[in-house]
Amino acid sequence: MPTRIDKIPAMSSSPTPDGVARSENAGDGSPMIELSEVAFGYTKARQILSGVTLSVPKGKLVAVMGGSGCGKTTILRLLCGQHAATSGRVKVSGKNIDEMSRDELFSHRRRLGMLFQFGALFTDMTVFENVAFPIREHTDLPEPVLHDLVLMKLNAVGLRGAAHLKPSELSGGMARRVALARTIALDPELVLYDEPFAGLDPISLSIVGQLIRKLNDALGMTSILVTHDIMESLKIVDYIYFIADGKVVAHGDVESIRRSTDPFVKQFVNGEPDGPVRFHYPAKPLAEAFSGASA
Question: Do 260 and 5 form a contact (C-beta atoms < 8 A)?
Fold first, then answer.
């Protein structure tokens, strides 16, 4: 059984730091996301997830952490409907993803936003056109309305003045903020973040982290954050799940994670080289390897 360190706290009704009130629908305690005993493998010999159970209430920002290859991004793909679970249930807003029709799946995807690792901006489009792209694809808004909406999204991430630039003219942190503006262009109910802090300098990392938190609260979104960055995540998330060997091995709120004595959590938070996650890949004894025996 995974270590449950604490329960998810109730969402505060206080305003965000910039004075924007939280959505009335945020944090009512009902689950937006439910994974129940979910298993998935690309082949029978390559099982990625085995019996993952987790729940994310509406309005919460929840991190999913674990070592490389543990199945974190696979969970995001299951939530998008890109992959179907081998067994178990993947539910969003009470609906089983694997039972959705083609039209229902497209409708589901229009209600979610995805921030890809490294942003994935269209290199031949301006910043403005990158953010406008999903709005043009999924709505029939008149051009003046679309124009103002895009500028509002860019203003929210501090880049309204960069609307005319191309991605090649942006710093890494600026590009990630443009990608964030594009992610929230359609005011999604659910946002999935795949390693949003990868490759960022400390200042850009902090800026992006605080934007993720503020936008989640201001727009009343529910968010899952897949990341290796434990320190930044502890500043902004409500709850954390740890994945290892395809399973949830521990979960809890931020203060519980900080105080945890669970060996896996302690090793991950402190970056210790030895513990449940071993430094050495399984091998024969060193003396045997040096003796000339076959490896």
Answer: yes
Domain with 91 in it: what CATH number?
3.40.50.300
Q: Strands 46-57 and 31-43, how do they pair? A: antiparallel
Structural domain harbouring 272: 1-58+67-110+227-276
Q: Is residue 236 part of a domain?
A: yes
Question: What angle (nearest 5°) sits at the alpha carbon of residue 192, between those of residues 144 and 249?
Answer: 170
Does residue 89 lie in a domain region? yes
How many domains is the chain built from?
1
Residues 150-183 pLDDT 10s: 999 999 888 999 999 999 999 888 898 999 999 9
Give Rg (Cα) of the chain.
Answer: 21
Mind giving me the DSSP string for 100-126?
--HHHHHHHHHTEEEE-TT----TTS-
For 109, phi then psi, to 5°, come to: -70, -30
129 part of a folded domain: no
pLDDT digits (tens, 9 = 90+) for 172-231: 888 989 999 999 998 899 999 988 888 888 888 888 889 899 989 988 899 999 988 888
How many other C-beta atoms are found inside a 10 Å radius of the C-beta of residue 136? 14
Instruction: Specify if 294 maps to a domain.
Output: no
